[in-house]
Design brief:
This protein has about 300 residues and is mainly β. About 15% of the residues lie in helices and about 40% in strands. It has helices spanning about 1-40, 280; strands at about 70-80, 95-105, 110-115, 125-135, 145-155, 175-190, 195-205, 215-225, 230-240, 250-260, 265-270, 295-305. The termini are far apart.
Length: about 300
Amino acid sequence: MKNNKLLFIGSCLLSILSISTASAQDSTQVITESTEIAEETYSEPIRTFESTRIINGHSVENLRKGVLEFRIEHRFGDLAGSNGGAQNWFGFDNASDIRMAFEYGVTDKFMVGLGRSKGNGNPYRSLLDAFGKYRILHQSATIPFSLSANGTVTYTYQKASDDISSVNYYPKQVHRLAYAAQLNVARKFGESFSIAVMPTVVHRNYVASDDQNTVFSLGGAMRWSITSKVGLLAEYYHCFNQTNLRTNYQNSLGFAIEWITFGHNFTVYLTNSSGFTETQFITNTQEKWSKGQFRLGFCIGRKFEKG
């Protein structure tokens, strides 16, 4: 009897052990299959451009949450033409505009910035600018393009002119303000080539009699990666002006080379625009490439991250 009991207990223990082993194998298989499915469905978002700016204007990219970037931008005078050449050391004797700014990633999708520009004097000087940019879509294996929206406001605190016919007369404080709103659509093709389209509206509260308060512009840009750290850039903004207005204004065109290092971004470029921010380079560019009225400029961006 005693042997029968021991045999019965042993059989039960073997049965329980067999069931436990089978269950563990089934659970491991489920976990493995779930991991494989997750790896198949997840796709890393694609970085379309390497900086939050292209040349003059914004790119579709944002700073990551918690990242602070300090930007120093400098733009010289004309390389050639009547205001360039050897007498002005090909523009190095002059500074058409200088900007310093702090920009910050509030979240991975939303960033803000605050800057101060010397102003190119056509017509503004002593400019403050602030902007916010929100990332709507991020290109991935399932999303064909990236999309962001940004808005900018600028304020000039330069001394008002005594000439009542001047744009700088500023009868009211609100006349010192200008605004820009932009959608940025971008796509990266393969490993090396990116394009962007940037429809933009600029509104200035106070303009000259031969100008218009609201200007619509369509921007286009590209980036070609030479290496993982070096790229070539081109950018163009075409303004749609009313008939018989803004006849002396030109469209902004620029070319650049960009270096990416750990924590730094360096951009060196040539452009016919003499000022920074959309309220200057889109609406107040009067220089012509064909007359040698283009200038050398550079931007240095330094990122600071927690930890």
